[in-house]
From TrEMBL:
Cellular-component GO terms for this entry: membrane
InterPro entries xrefs: MCPsignal_dom
Alphabetical keyword list: Transducer
Every Methyl-accepting transducer domain range: 155-273
PROSITE patterns in UniProt: CHEMOTAXIS_TRANSDUC_2
Biological process annotations from GO: signal transduction
Stated name of the protein: Chemotaxis protein
Length: 273
């Protein structure tokens, strides 16, 4: 189908109206078969075309004019610093001969795609790190449980040691009683019981030292029990925090996955712009 125009000047006059009618920012160029005769840059896209600028043989516009065919091409940002889509529509005189073309350029939203891609990359990295944190939280919770079991086992061992001390104290009491009885018997024996009295005194001395040692051990075990109780409470808190942290990281991972999905949708939308 031929696009018949009375003159290229009509297109030049119509171009600002067409530009204003577009729902997004565009630039419009009008040319004859050799050069540009008018250019209307957009706000975000300005190719710097000047009236009278010659059309080069290696440009898509040149081939579209020569072959009398509609052309649409993606121009990479290497040329103008940003990517855009350019269309060329040849127009004809009444005799059907190509007399020029109207060219429209629309900037592609590559920045939007790049942002979406960067978001996706950042989310992947964040998700990987959160995965490590979640794994560490799980290990921390497991380790805390093991520590808790060990502390409980230690507390039980301390309790058993306390039972041993109770028996030891009874032995000390009995030994002390035995020493007293021995001293009484030595006194009854007179001179013949002096040697036995020395033994009785040593027995009582040993009993007293045993009682003192048992008391010191009991005090130490009491301190250990108090410390183990505090340790047990701390381990409970650590385990609780670890479980909460693991749950929180799982929720964050879910949020990140949702954002990553939206990022993919944003990228697909940007591809259409």
């Amino acid at each position: 189908m031929k696009n018949i125009v009375r003159s290229l000047e009509d297109i030049v006059n119509l171009a600002p109206i067409l530009k204003a009618a577009f729902p997004y920012d565009v630039s419009i160029a009008v040319c004859d078969t050799e050069k540009f005769i008018a250019y209307f840059p957009g706000v975000s896209i300005d190719l710097g075309i000047r009236a009278g600028q010659i059309i080069l043989a290696d440009e898509p516009l040149y081939h579209a004019l020569k072959n009398d065919e509609f052309s649409k091409a993606n121009v990479p940002k290497d040329y103008y610093g940003y990517e855009f889509v350019g269309t060329v529509l040849p127009v004809h005189e009444e005799n059907g001969r190509v007399c020029g073309a109207i060219c429209i350029q629309v900037r592609r939203q590559t920045e939007l795609r790049e942002i979406a891609d960067q978001i996706s990359v950042s989310l992947n990295q964040a998700n990987a790190r959160i995965g490590h944190v979640a794994e560490g939280s799980g290990l921390l919770a497991d380790f805390s449980q093991k520590l808790l079991l060990q502390s409980e086992t230690t507390a039980e061992s301390v309790k058993k040691s306390d039972e041993v001390l109770t028996v030891l104290r009874k032995v000390a009491d009995q030994t002390n009683l035995l020493g007293i009885n021995a001293a009484i018997e030595a006194a009854h024996a007179g001179d013949k019981g002096r040697g036995f009295d020395v033994v009785a005194k040593e027995i009582r001395k040993f009993s007293k030292e045993t009682e003192q040692s048992a008391q010191r051990i009991r005090d130490t075990l009491g301190e250990i029990q108090a410390a183990m109780k505090q340790i047990s409470q701390s381990i409970h808190q650590i385990a609780s925090v670890g479980q909460e942290q693991a749950a929180s990281t799982n929720e964050i991972s879910s949020f990140i996955e949702e954002i990553r999905t939206m990022s993919g949708q944003l990228n697909q939308f940007a591809q259409k712009l």
